[in-house]
Design a protein that fits this description.
It is a single chain. This protein has 139 residues and is mostly helical. It contains seven helices and two strands. The radius of gyration is 25 Å and the shape is elongated. The mean pLDDT is 92.
């Protein structure tokens, strides 16, 4: 039985560039952009390197099996990293203005107005009357 060194096992991992040029990732790059996919590739490869370093991925065959699933692992990582972190929750605490739950919900009219203004340029730090720089906290 041949002993394979960790450095030999690390060499079996594809490079970031190699993965970014693989046909399997091209649809993902077109959909989400090369920088986002490259970040996901780096995270997945880092996890594999950690597995090798910890001795949990210690054979050439294990690396072959792990790298066969790289496309799916990269896709999962990308979707996870692009998922919104803020999610709706139910405040069942009895505390109306709960600081850990985003304080008080905005009314429908406030949400509509914020959407109207935040969706385009506004006079956030501009005084329209004087034509000079304004203060954002006067609004």
């Amino acid at each position: 039985m041949t002993t394979v060194s960790k450095s030999d096992i690390y060499r079996l991992l594809p490079s970031v560039d190699e993965l970014l040029h693989s046909p399997d990732l091209q649809p993902l790059i077109e959909e989400e952009g090369q920088p986002a996919v490259a970040d996901a590739v780096r995270v997945v490869l880092k996890k594999l390197r950690e597995e090798i370093g910890a001795g949990r991925l210690a054979s050439a065959e294990g690396v072959r099996v792990a790298t066969a699933e790289l496309g799916e692992a990269i896709t999962r990582q990308l979707r996870s990293s692009m998922d919104f972190s803020l999610k709706p929750v139910i405040n069942a605490t009895g505390v109306i203005l709960h600081t850990n739950l985003g304080r008080a919900p905005l009314s429908e009219s406030a949400l509509r107005r914020a959407s109207e203004v935040a969706g385009r340029y506004s006079n956030l730090e501009f005084d329209v009357a004087s034509g000079t720089r304004g203060k954002r906290d006067v609004h």
